[in-house]
Amino acid sequence: MKFFGGSSSATKPEPHPVRNATRRSSSLGELSRQWEGDTPLCVLDLGSTSPNNIRFFTEHGHRIYSEDLLTASTEPHLATQDEEGKPILDSRRFLADNLVYPASHFDVVLCWNLPDYLDESLVRPVMGRLWSVLKPGGMLLAFFHTKDAGPDSPCFRFHITGKDTLDMTPIKKRRDAGDGFHLQRVFNNRHIETLFRDFASIKFFLARDNVREVLVVR
Amino acid sequence: MSAPMSADLAQIGKSVVIKGELSGSEDLYVDGQVDGSIALKNHSLTIGPHGQVKASVEAKGIVVQGKLEGNVLASDRVELRKSAVFNGDITTQRISIEEGAYLKGKVDIQGRGEKAAAK
Fold first, then answer.
1. Cβ-nearest to A61 among B96, B103, B112
2. CA A55 – CA B94 distance, rounded (Å)
3. Does the interface predicted TM-score (ipTM) exceed 0.90?
4. Where are the domains of chain A?
5. With contact defined as beta carbons under 8 Å apart, do B77 and B91 qualify?
6. For testing the chain B interface, which of A52, A54, A64, A107 should be mutated: the one with the most B CBs within 10 Å?
7. Quick one: average pLDDT of A16-39?
8. What CATH number should be reported for the domain whose range is A18-217?
């Protein structure tokens, strides 16, 4: 797994203005077959609160849960140290406060680009919890940057606007005005397969914008 | 932001702290702190920008500008304004959420046909 130098560099480059964008998403198109049926679904959206997504799913008769895990990971009380004294986040505490749902509860989990921006100490525990709250046969959608993405790649909030269309809005930390979330790492295909090794299947969709879309089935 | 003025509007100001059960038959504006439960069956609750409410809420309409932690049941409508920080489950007929609002919890729209009722 490739790590970037982190955000504490003394010579910070001037931030580029980041604009809203629209993207086509093949994985979303495939996933949308799930919610076009008559069966009401239980959907978990792990991005920043999106009025669009809430409206989209409730208008289709589905039940949506919203949980902004990136913002939750900035809670100061999570900061701790590992055995070597390195700063980490307390994953046990994090999972006691977040993703607290019965097993096999969700039909769909929208992970968006969470794994790329989440602190390293939380990635595997969170994926483990997501496996347990997904129903067998349930699907999880995640986006991963490719190796061409730089550490300043903006973190976006994704709004579903159509069957395979997303609006993307850059997001900032709520508790740290002016500073956004930073790309923590780049997963290659093997890392992604390892991350989702407990899932039944995984499907990759290559996009043009340095992003790899992944649809996994529990 | 000041509270909307109305003859049938009760107000809880910024410095007021209430612990326990609140119920009433008029609209309520809370800009202070409430811990417990709020029941306003046919009336509306507005939580002002300074309001901090930890309570289960039952009302006709609920507008959140401040912080609300607890499950809410609105027979008509829930509005989360851009400054809202909401932790809890929402059951309502209609919902509106402004850009910037924070929501952690479930949104369940009732009365929208069989899909919603069946789950």
1. B112
2. 10
3. no
4. 18-217
5. no
6. A54
7. 84
8. 3.40.50.150
